[in-house]
Amino acid sequence: MDKENRTLDPRDWEKMRNLGHQMVDDLIDYWKGIQEKPIWKPIPEEVKKSLDEPIPSHHMDPQEVYNEFKENIFPYNKGNVHPRFFAWIQGTGTPLGTFADLMASGMNPNVTIGEHAPMYVDKQVISWCKEMMGFPPEASGILVSGGSMANITALTVARNSIKGENIRKSGMSHLDKKLILYCSTETHSCIQKAAEIIGLGSENIREIEVNEFYEMRSDLLEKQIFSDLENGFRPFCIVGTSGTVNTGAIDPLDEILRISRMYDLWFHVDGAYGALAKLDPIYENRLKAIEKADSLAFDLHKWFYVPYEVGCTLIRDSEKHRAAFSQTPNYLIQEKRGLAGGPDSLNHYGFELSRGFKALKVWMSLKENGLEAYKGMIAQNNRQAEYLGKLVESQEGLELMAPVSMSITCYRMNPGNLPEQKLKDLNREILLRIQEEGIAAPSSTLLKGKFTLRVANVNQRTRFEDMEILVRETIRIGKEVLSDLDFS
Ligand SMILES: *Cc1c(COP(=O)(O)O)cnc(C)c1O
């Protein structure tokens, strides 16, 4: 009998210690010098080839593995750690947040069940999230992988809470009326995905038209609910967005709240990006109705600058939350004492069973910075977006494409004499070159069919000067494109 004790632990602990130190050093150097480096660079073909290899079958020295990472992976990052990264809506992370993830991964608890400190850290972070969002202490919540998961978690609770029905048991097919969900035409695509997955069907989503500020029209919302009731449907939920992904628009949350109460509908807020704008005094009042929502989804990996991944769902009525998911199989019975004691298993509050210790990076970050620092950072991102808007307006040949809302600024170059198709070609080329030259990374969108550059700033490294650089480089590259391409 072979009694060799195999293990995956290091063959040489001291070598592993040194390698760990080197990783930390490399990260610190990377962050410290980040603004001097190009934001992005194309990946060479041989690098891509090195990432398309047969499965390794034998041991490789950890140092060599790391060297390969350093050569082929580390230099070709996405760029969202850089101060001029403004594409989509992507957070920067922080050094302590990163190291918290390292510690969380090293401790490696499965934060679902049991009497261990990570369970209490998770609870603590949920309490802080409730406090930040003005949810009552008796509300419940769960940390999930991100906004999409946070939204589907909340919508599942909404669906399972429909009065007089037991959808968990009977499913949807026996309902005599179709459930209808309301949102706006600007609502994030994850709401449609969620509605499809929880069995509503995309044809039972009513996308309400928006006004010139891209905000849901509550008059049309009410009309639609009325007509759905007349036609034998069963309205059940309205999703209001706090910070749309295109333009940072805020749906009329007070009005939606009023309408949801009047028709007895679940009021969910998708605040994946913009619920945290509540911490900026300029937005506090407009977002007050979040405190009255039945549920809220928001991301901590976007505007709370915590490394990927972590989002949060809050549910006003904790009993409904638990009733939507709780299950106790024989292998998950809780005890009053011992390792299987501890707080109510988190398995009762969401779909996922195994959960990592993502609470730690939020806990450490909040302790490190304090809430006041987040208020200051979020307000700064908003002021920077407004500053960019002013710069755009002050430049001949640039135009603002939507009112600046929260920290999103949409603009384009428009020399004034080009048809729409050429404006699209011009601005697309500006976008590609500004990224490829490693200067800055806006993204694009279509607003009323018009191609626009889109700058979303949830970046804790951005300085006001970066907005000046962005405008200056847009103009420089735009002029080059105009002379390079045939725009006659
Ligand atoms: C980003 C975003 C989502 C999706 O969140 P993920 O964390 O990417 O899953 C949903 N809604 C809005 C408004 C968003 O900005």
Short description:
By secondary structure, the protein is α/β, with parallel strands linked by helices. The protein is 42% helix and 12% strand.
- The beta-strand count equals 11
What is the CATH C level class of the largest domain, in words?
A: Alpha Beta
- Give the helix tally: 15
| Alpha carbon gyration radius | 25 Å
The CATH architecture of the largest domain comes to 3-Layer(aba) Sandwich
Q: Stretches where pLDDT falls below 50 for ≥5 residues?
A: none
Give the overall silhouette: globular
Describe the strand arrangement of the main beta sheet, using strand numbers: 1-7-6-5-4-2-3
Q: What is the residue-mean pLDDT, rounded to a whole number?
A: 96
Residue share in helix: 40-55%
Biggest pleated sheet: 7 strands, mixed
What percent strand?
Answer: 5-15%
Instruction: Provide the list of bound ligands, each named once.
Output: pyridoxal-5'-phosphate
CATH superfamily of the largest domain: Type I PLP-dependent aspartate aminotransferase-like (Major domain)
**Per CATH, what is the topology of the largest domain?**
Aspartate Aminotransferase, domain 2
SSE sequence, one letter per element: HHHHHEHHEHEHEHEHEEHHEEHEEH
Number of domains: 3
N-end to C-end Cα span: 83 Å
SSE class: alpha/beta
InterPro entries: Aromatic_deC, PyrdxlP-dep_de-COase, PyrdxlP-dep_Trfase, PyrdxlP-dep_Trfase_major, PyrdxlP-dep_Trfase_small
Family: Belongs to the group II decarboxylase family.
Protein name: Aminotransferase class V-fold PLP-dependent enzyme
GO molecular function: transaminase activity
